[in-house]
Amino acid sequence: MLKFHNTTKNIILILLFAISQNLTASDKVSTLERRADSIMRIMVSEYHKQYKKPFETINLTDSTIWNTRLYKFCKQLPKGGELHVHSTALLAFDDYCSFLASQPNIYIQIEGDNIGHTLYQTDPYDVPAGYLPARTCLSGNYLTRDRCLKLYTFNGGSQPNPWKDFQPIFRRIFNGAFGSPENFEKYMENAFNIYVENNIQFAEIRIGSTMDRDIFLSMAEMIMKACNNVRKKADFHVSIIGTGNKGYSLEEVQKRIDNVAYVQQHIKDTLMGKCNVVTGFDLVSNEDCNNGFEYYYDVLKKCEHEHPDLKLYLHAGETKNTKNDNIMWAIKLGAKRIGHAFNMYFFPDLYNEIRQNDICIETCPLSSVKLGYCSDMKSHPSIEYIHSGLPAAICSDDPTIFEHTALTDDFFAVIAEWNLSLSEVKQLCMNSITYSSLSKKAKKRIMKDWKKRWAEFVRGIAEQK
Ligand SMILES: [Zn+2]
């Protein structure tokens, strides 16, 4: 499908980039890193020998995969941070189900029109007919694991309109987990602990901004509280990017921006010198059937002037449409990062603009394959973007729905399938810190810690055979 990938023009542009940016990552490679690079490549070939089938048919929840050296490498890899994940789908599928079952006030519909719909209810007498406590449902008698997989995960990239089935999953998942501030805090704490276990130092979470700004403020407060709880055991950081929808009117987008800016003023990270927790704004949803950024240009440009501390981190180019020019508009709008940038290979002239404006591409490899934007991992266009030295970071998007563990599984996919060198992997991890929206103070602290983690990690890998 990537017809334009290997056009002569494109290849020349890439080479010019590489030369102009002096992209000789190997210049800076230490002896230990060179050794670790060889071991990583051995791990990749061991994995391919053991699993001869296409990556897309591999079940990442299969414990035999977790026992491969390559998977363990990806889990231990100091990944830096997560730059693109949605609050509604942070936990891996099994962790999400365990979370539901652990909460006494969450119910699941097992009969009626919305099977699988989650609900928060403190008074059991007010629970509507057809709902049972999540714990009861998930014990196996009512909703088996296979049934839950069908209800809460998505693997429908081959369908003509995957978003049609994808969006109802969000609605099913949504209410139960987020029904009360306390639930939301526990959910977030769970997710942050899993990030820490996977050697991830921070997360930038996209949250749908609400029409009522106090509800959004309460969600932001719970996220900060969850982060502070996790900080009792590990150095973890968080920031929030408020989102609107590409289907909204101009007035509604303006209102959401104002609400996000209001919350930005009312919540600070006191441990990091009272820096902002809310750092950006984005417009999400299916780009093939909603408004483009051209439509929102004035309102988003005004945001830059009215709220200079609220930067734009925009989903753009998550489409195979050759005419969709959202990436171009995102660049014009001064976006600091671009979510997906999938269809940029149709616009090779933009590569230079991405480089000149120092914009980072938030690549979500498993998400793109599961939603069917590319047929397999090997044809993902970000291979080209990364090999050409464009700033990119690996992100997970919606771990629950795509049935994977945030970042560990995404790195596993790209290291197994994209023929990356260890230098390129290192750059992806460092980019996540460099291009994060966290405060200068937090970034400095995270980068210092990351360098220590990286040195230890490389030493450990280099000592293996
Ligand atoms: Zn996304």
Explained architecture:
With 465 residues, this protein is α/β, with parallel strands linked by helices. It has a domain at 56-97 and 177-456: TIM Barrel (Alpha-Beta Barrel), CATH 3.20.20.140. The chain is 48% helix and 14% strand. The chain is built from 19 helices and 13 strands. The strands form three sheets. The protein has an eight-stranded parallel beta sheet. It has a three-stranded antiparallel beta sheet with strand order 3-2-4. The chain is globular. Mean pLDDT is 90; it is low at 1-26. Zinc ion binds at residues 84, 86, 315, 339, 397.
Quick recap of the structure?
With 465 residues, the protein is an alpha/beta fold. The protein contains 19 helices and 13 strands.
Key traits:
binds zinc ion; 13 strands; TIM Barrel; eight-stranded parallel sheet; three-stranded antiparallel sheet; 19 helices; alpha/beta; globular; 465 residues; 14% strand
**Ligand roster:** zinc ion
**Main sheet record:** 8 strands, parallel
The residue-averaged pLDDT reads: 90
CATH overall fold name of one domain: TIM Barrel
**Total DSSP helices:** 19
**What low-confidence regions span 5 or more consecutive residues with pLDDT below 50?**
1-26
CATH architecture of one domain: Alpha-Beta Barrel
| CATH homologous superfamily label of one domain | Metal-dependent hydrolases
How much of the sequence lies in strands comes to 5-15%
Helix share, percent: 40-55%
How is the largest sheet built, in terms of strand order? Answer: 1-5-6-9-10-11-12-13
Distance between the termini: 39 Å
* Cα gyration radius (Å): 22 Å
Structural class: alpha/beta
The count of strands amounts to: 13
Q: In CATH, what is the class of one domain?
A: Alpha Beta
Globally, the shape reads globular
